[in-house]
């Protein structure tokens, strides 16, 4: 009889000490009648344990929040303070312009209109070609930067495909050209074309022609419409300078769409020391389509064999790791021609990418004067 009473009291005690709703099956009941919820379960905005009946959504670095006692912002917050938590599913319902786990990142405007890629801020760049970066400061990878601010994995923007522009890549780009009526500071001096210099430093061999004699490389040109074109293989060799110069000029003029419609090439060979041959190539842009500043040419000097276009044997440059002794492109003469959308003498039809020239002007980029008005 005594043991029966003890057992009855124990059952009563257990019933009285049971946690609310038995922690909804998502937690453990502690001796103080409080639920210890499993991960991602709780109740309410305060995220207290309660009866563990609701889901908790992912936490991410907050876009906007109040400072802590140390004055620090951007703490972790549920749905990054840019969405509402669905307590049934445990998923964030993000506000417009935000997406991802915990509303952690921005969307790109109009999904880049199908004409670009949505990139994080840390993966964007300011230059157009490899040579637009200063190799002194970006020797490891000149195309990326050590961006470490709080939004490095959050803010995104559009990087448009070639021939498309604007913040959402929705507009077709129009041709660029010089303003035919632009007034220079000194009209007595002949107008200057842009001149770029390519420097090759190659190890010398006993035949004085260099170890790269007969090997092939290519040049990549990027237009003002962000189109990239790579030439056919060019044979490297200074045994016949005229032939070498002609090969470079022909390769550039044969790029598609006459993207380069006029160019002059000159080359010289120097011996800076007993171990190196320095080949300097000057490329002058003279065509109507390449007036004004141009993106720097890129030298494709790595081997590109099976499965590559074009196939290249590459150049053997022992001094590749020394920035000033690798194939380096430098603009040695700045053009005093300019470069404007539609030559500043027309309007761009952004739906077609064609210029509508003003009265008295014609041509693809409106830089041909037809009459005096």
What does this structure look like?
The structure is a single chain. The chain is mainly beta. The chain has 5 domains: 14-56, Ribbon (Laminin), CATH 2.10.25; 60-98, no CATH class; 108-172, no CATH class; 176-184 and 339-369, no CATH class; 195-333, no CATH class. Helix content is 8%, strand content 29%. It is built from 2 helices and 28 strands. The protein has helices at residues 2-17, 241-253; strands at 27-29, 35-37, 41-42, 54-55, 59-61, 76-78, 83-86, 91-94, 98-99, 105-106, 116-120, 156-160, 164-165, 171-172, 176-177, 195-203, 216-222, 228-230, 234-235, 263-273, 276-285, 298-300, 328-333, 340-341, 346-349, 354-357, 361-362, 368-369. The strands form 12 sheets. It has a 4-stranded antiparallel sheet, covered by helices on one side. Strands 17, 18, 19 and 22 form a 4-stranded antiparallel sheet that branches. It is elongated. The model is unreliable at 8-16, 137-142 and 319-326 (pLDDT under 50).
Radius of gyration over C-alpha positions, nearest whole angstrom: 33 Å
Helix/strand class:
mainly beta
Shape estimate: elongated
Element-level helix/strand string: HEEEEEEEEEEEEEEEEEEEHEEEEEEEEE
Strand order across the biggest sheet? 20-21-16-23
Uncertain spans, ≥5 residues at pLDDT below 50? 8-16, 137-142, 319-326
Could you report the average pLDDT, rounded to the nearest whole number?
85
The amount of helix comes to under 10%
In DSSP terms (H or I, runs of 4 or more residues), the helix count works out at 2
Estimate the strand proportion.
25-35%
**Major sheet:** 4 strands, antiparallel
Number of domains: 5
What's the total number of strands? 28
Alpha-carbon distance between the two ends:
121 Å
